[in-house]
Amino acid sequence: MQRFTGIAASPGIAVGKLRIIDRRRIAVTELAVAPEAVAHEIRRLTDAVAATRAELEALRSHLAETTGDDHLFFIETHLMILADERLVSETSAIISSGLINAEGALLRTLGRYREIFAGIDDPYLRERIYDVETVIERVLHCMGGTAPEQLPRHEERVVVAAHDITPADMLQINRDNVLAIITEIGGRTSHTAILARALELPAVAGVDGIAELPLDGQQVIVDGTSGVVIVNPDDEAFRTFLSRKQHYDYLESELLKTAHLPAVTLDGRSLLLRGNVEIPEEGSSVLKHGGAGVGLYRTEILFMNRAGLPDEEEQFGVYRSMQQAVAPHLLTIRTLDAGGDKLLDGMETVVEQNPVLGMRAIRLSLSMPEEFKKQLRAILRVSATGPVRIMFPMISGLEEVRSARKLLEEAKSELDRAGIPYDRQIQVGVMIEIPSAVTVADLLAREVDFFSVGTNDLIQYLLAIDRTNEQLSPLYQPLHPAVLRSLRQIVHTAHAAGITACLCGEMAGDPLYLPVLLGLGFDELSMGAASLLRVKQILRRCSSQRARQIADGCFRFSTAAEAELYLKQQMTLDVVESFD
Ligand code: PEP
Ligand code: MG
User: Fold this and answer.
1) Is 28 inside any structural domain?
2) Which residue, 145, 357, 508, 537, is most buried by CB atoms nearer than 10 A?
3) What is the pTM of this model?
């Protein structure tokens, strides 16, 4: 028996036969070349880039016919990386200055990209390096005249393990014969992991070295919930995981039966439960899990890791796919929330000492008004096709709201002049995720239609705890009195002004916090699709009065640890009572 621990990339447990796909990095040797061979090497490079482009375009047409347009956005990303002139120009420069072969030069270019990406704080942005690696790997294959081994299509049901499984592979996966995936690289926010979750395929990423071992054909257990992979399990491990799997599958299927039940408390108070999404596939998953539309559509993914920014048409196409996926429900589109400008091509690169406190989110959008208006026009145009609302991220005060709204008005006038329809009553909201926004919430509330609390950032800024620093995670406390008081103030201020109070940070998806958020009076919670049914289950067992009692109870304590202990005790009491 061999046990591996990786990153829990997509929940679920699968047991099956391991099928290792030969996706090992191509062994590339850096060779010296004579000055007269430089032109030949550069041509080999440009030919391979052209051949890769042709391959990706063919794949795009094939997928458009077989799986529809919704998924093609990953291939577009790869085409964009390939279209970035710097890939060829920098690699050519390395060939001519270093007098080395094209393969060696391409690997050096990849090394440079790796260094740049490794220095990025935001884990999501950092993991975009996997897209670059995938593209360069394809080019190397083209240079060597080889093709990466394809995923299994018509064979028995297997668990696939490979050095890397690209998003394009994922789209071609036959759900009937792939039970789970294991990759050596990648993380929770890699495109592949996002797709695995959208396709509800258990996945463990970052299992170093597994594809190199002679394990093909062995029995394997994949636990995408805990990130554990066990090859050749002994009887005891097999029984343990089998019963865990049965339990998990049973709970999932039981929960899915409740997808159509209304999200109401025992005494009939409704709470809107919505989903957080990044790609259209997740939109369908939100509806399947009974979500009342989308409370947070993070649009960043479309802007990153590419040459240039997406134009209005491209944005319109992607937002529309999302809107269609969640129709007839509401779609809340958040404007660009990129952290730092390093990955957005065509902009001045400023090295920031504190990127999290730097040129990000709404500040970035306001610093490039024409680009921002493209996004606003694209969102407005989608609002003509179904219910859509706009949300601005990282608002610190009223000036930003006014500047953003002014550009929104300009975008509307431009559409008016062109005779293009949009929803004239479109709602505009702001994320409350900076402490100053909590303090001036009353001023903001007069000029927006809703608040959505981003607890991931609010806790980070309120407690000065870097949300990505694992060492600090015990200090990242949703029940810290400062957080609870802020949440209470936000809801109170929103309701006093007659606007809606939503919450879309990770806190919303943890069933433990449901009574507190309900008791505080939130109108809407938005979370990952996989959390919707569990949260609804707790909601349906709770009364508004009991929730208020629990929320008030939490305020009696001076520390997060005490409040958490109290909350857990109350939740346990309620569960025990519900079985009496
Ligand atoms: C948040 O900060 O809570 C939030 C929902 O936004 P993001 O996680 O995208 O920063
Ligand atoms: Mg945020």
Assistant:
1) no
2) 508
3) 0.71
